[in-house]
Design a protein that fits this description.
It is a single chain. Strands 1-2 form a two-stranded antiparallel ribbon. Helix 9 packs parallel to helix 15 and helix 16 crosses helix 17. The protein is mainly alpha-helical.
Length: about 325
């Protein structure tokens, strides 16, 4: 109860009862008004007799989306802390979105069952026009200067030319400028939780898949969901162990992270704490440089490889011949 009201009520009760002291009687309302700052006597009585309100019930913590329940059970069974998982998946930013799986299945279907579109005739941009514009060359030079010690250390330790490492980071993320616009957690969790074909059938409706094609699509969906689950588990292990907020991590459309765009399982296996700050953070240039170098060394890079050998190694980083050729063309020119 308000201290002023309590004081006023006590004084009023004292006025109403006979004085047990031998002093003069209290002079009534005047002292009461002084005690409560000229508060009206009837107001004091009315407020004093009001019932004390019950404390406001605290709002229950939001529950995770039901779509996550099976996922959380599996992650808990694999050793991740249930309480931390529930707190994380209850946050409003973690929204189940079947579009990630639906779009992936569309791509898979088109690649397998539809003819490839013809190559458009006409001039194509050169390496200089696409990757080595004056602005990009200036950014490459600035990046190499700012990270000169790290690049030299990685070159010495892993045997990777610094030009190749910088070219990889340039093609992957423009040296960190474009690391993805989607939360990696939501991408991987949504794909891992999308196991029912009916949820994504609308993304394939225009193709009218045959029964045999439907069986193939469902098989590929299960494979991709299992793959995404493994990547999600690795992602959570990585960020919970490093005490970083998983929701602050952007990723590609399939959950690759950092300047070097590693999938989380590769980050756990081949990621390197290049700046030795006790955390593996692939958004830190030193960690990304050392991690990419470690990956390529494990993929078979060694001194004296010819062009074809270098192409084979880089295609293990990204299984695309055009990608590998672009990386080596940029490296040759920087």
């Amino acid at each position: 109860m308000n201290a002023r009201i309590l004081l006023a009520l006590c004084l009023l009760l004292a006025l109403a009862a006979p004085s047990r002291a031998q002093d003069s009687p209290v002079s009534g309302a005047e002292e009461v008004r002084q005690a409560v700052g000229a508060m009206d006597e009837n107001e004091v009585r009315a407020e004093a007799l009001m019932p004390v309100p019950s404390p406001e019930p605290q709002a229950a913590a939001p529950a995770p989306d039901p779509a996550w329940e099976m996922l959380l059970g599996g992650l808990e069974a694999d050793g991740l802390p249930r309480a931390e998982l529930e707190a994380l998946f209850s946050r409003p930013e973690v929204r189940f979105d079947p579009a990630y799986m639906g779009k992936k299945l569309r791509t898979l279907y088109k690649t397998k069952y539809l003819p490839r579109p013809p190559v458009q005739p006409g001039p194509h941009k050169t390496i200089w026009e696409t990757w080595l514009t004056p602005a990009n060359r200036a950014e490459i030079a600035a990046f190499m200067k700012a990270n000169a010690k790290t690049l030299a250390a990685a070159e010495k330790k892993y045997g990777l030319p610094r030009q190749v490492l910088v070219a990889i980071l340039m093609v992957e993320t423009k040296l960190g400028k474009y690391c993805g616009e989607r939360p990696a957690l939501t991408v991987l969790a949504s794909m891992a939780a999308t196991r029912d074909y009916a949820v994504v059938s609308g993304y394939l409706k225009e193709f009218s898949p045959t029964p045999a094609q439907l069986d193939w699509l469902k098989m590929r969906q299960a494979q991709k969901a299992d793959w995404a689950y493994d990547e999600l588990k690795a992602f959570l292990e990585l960020y919970l162990a490093n005490h970083l907020d998983p929701l602050l991590v952007p990723g590609s459309i399939y959950g690759a992270i950092g300047l070097c765009q590693f999938m989380p399982t590769n980050a756990l296996k081949l990621g390197v704490d290049g700046n030795r700050d006790g955390k593996l953070d692939l958004f830190a240039p030193a960690d990304a440089i050392h991690s990419a170098a470690n990956y390529l060394k494990n993929a078979g890079w060694r001194k004296g490889l010819n062009h074809n050998g270098q192409m084979r190694v880089i295609m293990r980083y990204n299984h695309d011949r055009t990608y590998a050729g672009t990386v080596l063309a940029i490296a040759k020119r920087i």
